[in-house]
Specification:
With about 260 residues, the protein is mainly alpha-helical. About 70% of the residues lie in helices and about 0% in strands. The protein has 12 helices and no strands. The protein has helices at about 5-25, 30, 35-55, 60-80, 85-95, 100-120, 145-155, 170-185, 190-210, 210-220, 225-235, 240-260. Helix 6 packs across helix 8.
């Protein structure tokens, strides 16, 4: 981007390259030509970061969901991951020692992180579950399909062993995302099934509370209240702050709905 005269020009060039590559290759080219497939994935990963780095790039929510879904489907094709079962199978193969397994764990971490960003984006309206908002639907898959894979990722966190950027707080975020998917699924249920899902959502949110525990430990390391205030003015926003806010808001919504039930 720095070598191009404007952000908008860079976005157009990147978009045209991704589109041209997509039209020139067969649907399964990622598996038959992993090198080109990886270039395409890297370009899409870069594109997905643009709205957060440049204020002039502001795609709609529906566009973000569809783009993130396609990006993660391409990574899944590279890793031969189709569902929760194939994810667990991949992680079993990556449990071995060696360079190839280590590279595989890096790719698995990338997939899990990007896929969880998709889970984070998904709302009831994306599944066509919000009354009178069919126009906002962005996926033909059900919340249960995504949830099955989300649970598989949570159950195989050892798949990321040795990856430097892996942080235990990420697992807390993944639990929060699983709770969000369960919430969409809960809309379709009644009676005991709805109550059982509510209990599972609360269990997920309890696991996600590790985000709050980490913040409390960080606060306990600060020397004084005055110094803490100075640091708050100078420091960059911490990576997990938005997720803590999302967790707190989710709890409020669930408590309010549970009180009505």
């Amino acid at each position: 981007m720095a070598a191009i005269d404007s952000v908008e020009t860079g976005v157009l060039i990147l978009r045209d390259w991704i589109f041209r590559q997509h039209t020139q290759y067969k649907p399964d080219f990622i598996r038959s030509d992993p090198e080109q497939g990886w270039y395409a994935i890297r370009a899409m990963l870069t594109s997905s970061q643009l709205p957060y780095r440049f204020g002039s790039v502001s795609p709609t929510h529906r566009s973000l969901v569809k783009f993130q879904q396609e990006t993660t489907e391409r990574i899944a094709a590279l890793l031969n991951v189709r569902d929760g079962r194939s994810w667990r199978s991949l992680c079993e193969r990556l449990s071995e020692r060696g360079l190839h397994a280590q590279i595989g764990r890096y790719l698995a971490m990338t997939y899990a992180d990007e896929r969880n960003y998709l889970y984070e984006l998904l709302r009831p309206e994306d599944f066509g579950l919000a009354p009178g908002e069919d126009a906002l639907k962005s996926t033909d898959l059900s919340p249960a399909t995504y949830l099955e894979e989300a649970e598989a990722i949570l159950g195989a966190s050892g798949c990321f062993e040795g990856v430097p950027r892996f942080n235990r707080q990420l697992i807390s975020v993944y639990y929060l995302n699983a709770a969000q998917l369960r919430y969409s699924l809960r809309i379709l249920k009644e009676g005991d099934e709805k109550l059982a899902l509510t209990q599972k959502i609360r269990a997920d949110l309890e696991q996600a509370r590790q985000l709050d525990a980490e913040r409390e430990r960080e606060n306990s390391r600060q020397i004084s209240i005055v110094e803490a205030r100075i640091l708050d003015l100078l420091r960059q926003p911490e990576e997990f702050e938005p997720h803590r806010a999302r967790l707190a808001e989710f709890r409020k919504i669930l408590d309010k709905e549970s009180a009505k039930d």
